[in-house]
Amino acid sequence: MSHLQQSISHADIPTKILHNRTMVQLGLCAFRKGLIQHAHTTLNEIQSSQKSKELLAQGLSTQRMSERNLEQEKIEKQRQIPFHMHINLELLEYSYLTCAMLLEVPHMAAHQFDQRKKLSRTFHYQLRNAEKSPLIGPPDSMREHLVAAAKAMMKADWKTCADTLLAHKIWGLMPRAEEVKEMLRQKIKEESLRTYMFTYSACYDSISPHVLSRMFDLTNAQINALISKMILNDELKASWDKPTELLMLHRAESSKLQSLAKQTADKLTYVMDNTEKMLQQGTPFTSKGSAPSGLPWNSTWTNNMYINKGGAQGYPGQSYPGQSYPGRQNYSNQGDRSGGYQKRNYNSAGGAGYNRKTGGSYNNSGYNNYNRKQNYSQSAY
Fold first, then answer.
1. Which of 333, 330, 374, 372 shows the shortest CA–CA distance to 349?
2. Across all residues in the chain, what is the average pLDDT?
């Protein structure tokens, strides 16, 4: 293997453009063949960047004109692909969002109490924008068709979902459009069944596959295969009863309170792990404020060191690095405790004076002539 995905970031710009266009074509091929997961993974990087036009060398974005000068703009225009070689960006976006809908709607139904797990942020962005609209009419644009189809799938209404999604005229630009439409209709039936089971399984003790077959226009063999796959993947707590040919559902799903408690525990674990990593790396918590837990109460955490604010022992640090103090140059401790030290205009340039209210002198060549009521040795600092 060439490991092209790991090394493409170091290639020149024309090679990157060729790589992007190749990945898009592979994603569209996977979509036409019904490989929805592979198509979504392949197209996700291009579509989530919001710069598909520039990445495919099919035009320049007017929103980023201020980020380049005239010379850069001239060079980028020379890299543009001829018009007859363009990939339809609207068809590309619609194919990607369709893949995201088929994957995300059942996933949302399975994790309705944990909305942090998102497969496609672009799809959720379209849903949020549609919810902000004060008036919702018949779908007109491509994105409105997709949102309306997604809302129908959330209700397990596969007929409305398929009719709304496939009604847009953009599918006429897809090669072998009728085959693609039939494939999408079949995928919508299957994912609507999965959504229905995730959403309403708690309302049943048992259900017949014949009922599901009539609801979603699937054969009994297809129903058995889909349900069995969900059971094997531990997505559905159920089992088949062979004598009655019924699907027995086991109510083992967690309640909303249990789900929220689990989310809180996960967040606390995440915060605790991050805190331990910061303590091990010696990362300062703040440039001002109190010291981390475990340091003396009268200490201040500054520049990965703690400074004792008083006490009869003087400065209790383990080392004093030479003639310069590794912190702020002008440090004033407002306390005046006996036996402690109080800094007034300490200059680390060498040979400077170290003055106190009570006087005294500081000899820069040693630490033995600092007098207040007694002599302080170098070890006191």
1. 330
2. 75
